[in-house]
Amino acid sequence: MPRVAVIEDDLPTSNQLRSWIEAAKPGIVVDQWFSRDEAEAAIARERYDLVVLDIELGRERHAGVAIINAINKKHATPVLVVSAMPATIYRSIMKALDAWDYLQKATFEEADFTDTFLEILRAVKERDKPAQGADELAMDPLRQRSPTWRGQRINLPLTAQRILAALFARRGQVVSYEELYEVVKSGRNRDNIRKHVSTIRDAFREIDPAFECIENVPMRGFRWAD
């Protein structure tokens, strides 16, 4: 069974996250850590399938950042950040650190957490399978494995991965804004969809500066054009 670490200094919150994880995946092994020192020691000795962590631990406002850096040096384990820090500021920071997704406390329900958590576990299971080809986008629209472009992993939040999967599944066709609303959990408006598409383009261009496969179709939506 998968092994997960919950790194959260508030005991009720830690227990809540643990109960949601165990309900979503019966039999899963969940370790709880409450400080940076405990967490870093555990990461050094254990190989986790996923880490759920808060950014602020005790008096250390950015302890989670140090822990993510330690994880990346050791195993590159997927990280789901659950923090009270504002998502508008910290989501991009966590993305730059290669965290897989970011949930802001008090803005999501159990179902949102469970969906995100299970999608990351599925992506972990799929990511080591051979890529479909080094010269094209490799992803599974059903399982939404971590996508790769020209053999390199594309660092995208899961919502952006859902949008990318929808566009790629219908490559050559226009995917309307209304259809894209169906794959996002919140922010079902055109501005939010545009922001996600901009995030996708930026992620591709970090790997391939000449990337131009996602076309804007004015007043309608977007299209993946090979």
From TrEMBL:
MF (Gene Ontology): phosphorelay response regulator activity; transcription cis-regulatory region binding
InterPro entries named among the record's database cross-references: CheY-like_superfamily, OmpR/PhoB-type_DNA-bd, Sig_transdc_resp-reg_C-effctor, Sig_transdc_resp-reg_receiver, WalR-like, WH-like_DNA-bd_sf
Membrane-spanning residues: none
Stretches of the chain forming a coiled coil according to its record: none
Residues recorded with modification 4-aspartylphosphate: D54
GO biological process: regulation of DNA-templated transcription
Gene3D superfamilies xref list: 3.40.50.2300, Winged helix-like DNA-binding domain superfamily/Winged helix DNA-binding domain
Keywords, sorted A to Z: DNA-binding, Phosphoprotein, Transcription, Transcription regulation, Two-component regulatory system
Domain Response regulatory per the UniProt entry, residue ranges: 3-120
One Pfam family recorded for the sequence: Response_reg
Cellular component aspect of the GO annotation: cytosol; protein-DNA complex
Entry-linked PANTHER family: REGULATOR OF RPOS (PTHR48111), TWO-COMPONENT RESPONSE REGULATOR ORR33 (PTHR48111:SF1)
Protein name stated in the entry: Transcriptional regulator
Phylogenetic classification of the source organism: Bacteria, Pseudomonadati, Pseudomonadota, Betaproteobacteria, Burkholderiales
